[in-house]
Amino acid sequence: MNWDDTTDAEAAAERLVGAVADGEDQAVEAALRPKDLGEFIGQEKVREQLDLVLRAARARGATADHVLLSGAPGLGKTTLSMIIAAEMEAPIRITSGPAIQHAGDLAAILSSLQEGEVLFLDEIHRMSRPAEEMLYMAMEDFRVDVVVGKGPGATAIPLELPPFTLVGATTRAGLLPPPLRDRFGFTAHMEFYGPAELERVIHRSAGLLDVEIDPTGAAEIAGRSRGTPRIANRLLRRVRDYAQVKADGLITQEIAEAALAVYEVDARGLDRLDRGVLEALLKLFGGGPVGLSTLAVAVGEERETVEEVAEPFLVREGLLARTPRGRVATPAAWAHLGLTPPRSQSSGNGQQDLFGA
Ligand SMILES: Nc1ncnc2c1ncn2[C@@H]1O[C@H](COP(=O)(O)OP(=O)(O)OP(=O)(O)O)[C@@H](O)[C@H]1O
Ligand SMILES: [Mg+2]
Question: What is the reported pTM?
Fold first, then answer.
């Protein structure tokens, strides 16, 4: 899946259930970010491992090992990077792969780091090649070669760096060259959150935003949040608006359901686009298999939008499968839309019959 292509990122950000941050998210997220590991909800394994790494470094009076955070958008990578700095009582410098065009940009940042500082490099997979190679040496030997001059007269001046902790974040760990991946002492793979964890995220955010919510309301929003805290927080804000305007402000299950019906986010977190794709697949193509291009035309969307914006979640939810012969709906898809599969499909895997007939 590609989260980086600008048009897809924009298409995804426009959606209420898109995982990429929009302008409003960025404005409120700072206020909702947990400040230390104890406040960080879920991701038990990552938390436990990171806690050990940081505690041990603190006990040794050393700078923590470099940390790589990998996971889908909105799961808490930026949040964790700030927590790492806070737990180490170290300052943090924030930059990103796309912001580092030339090795010189990176050299300037590295040479101005203080001892023990955390350097957060977001979207690290999008760094340029020469910068990447400079980073290898900086991570391993705390040294960079700064090239002065051009052409045959150019000389490399070695520069010592103070020990620092690099925290890299990526939505696409698979794109990192192995030499870079290997230089991280610890890699945290962030998973999607379970419903109970999302409920805790929602209750916590509601408290910070001064929103009244009961447990049934939190459960309802959690179930529609696609395993992603950022989406949970966003849905919470929209439901809060509804509760304020249409009711007395208290978010109950009933209010959450009514509010999210207005925004066309269904009980499983599918929005209009997702449902459009599923509906076309079921109603027009009998559940498939159907080619991606045909399916895209049927829903009036670009191929890329269907493939990169709608499908990943449908596949993750077990509603749609990508097969060599095309897209296929699963029995769960028929059930979710309240439709009855054609007889040859009701066994659960009758696509072959349809096609062979
Ligand atoms: N474990 C958590 N507990 C509570 N809130 C969380 C947690 N993880 C994320 N959040 C909330 O979700 C929002 C998004 O998190 P964050 O910005 O860290 O995601 P990200 O992984 O950096 O996303 P991106 O890939 O888009 O940069 C933040 O506002 C944060 O408050
Ligand atoms: Mg981030």
Answer: 0.89
Domain boundary (139, 162, 189) is at 189
What contacts 125, CB < 8 A, 6 or more positions away?
Answer: 97, 170, 171, 172, 173, 175, 176
Ligand 1 center–CA 228 separation, angstroms: 8
Q: How many CB atoms lie within 10 A of CB 192?
A: 18
Tell which one of 15, 41, 79 to mutate to probe ligand 1, the residue whose CB is within 8 A of the most ligand atoms.
Answer: 79
The ligand that comes nearest to the alpha carbon of residue 76 is: 1
What residue owns the CA closest to ligand 1's atom 25? 73
Q: Catalytic: 182?
A: no
The answer to whether residue 294 scores a pLDDT higher than 50 is yes
Do 246 and 280 sit in the same domain of this protein?
A: no
Q: What integer pLDDT is reported at residue 83 of this predicted model?
A: 97
Of 338 and 26, the one with more pLDDT: 338
134, 166, 189 — which closes off a domain? 189
Residue 4 confidence class, pLDDT cut points 50, 70, 90: very low
Q: Does ligand 1 lie within 6 Å of residue 34's CB atom?
A: yes
Q: How many whole angstroms separate alpha carbon 352 and alpha carbon 14?
A: 37
Which of 37, 45, 75 has most ligand 1 atoms within 8 Å of its beta carbon, as the pocket-test mutant? Answer: 75
Whether 122 is catalytic: yes
Is residue 15 a part of any domain in this protein?
no
pLDDT tens per residue, range 91-110: 999 999 999 988 889 999 99
Whether the CB-CB separation of 144 and 107 falls below 8 Å is answered with: yes
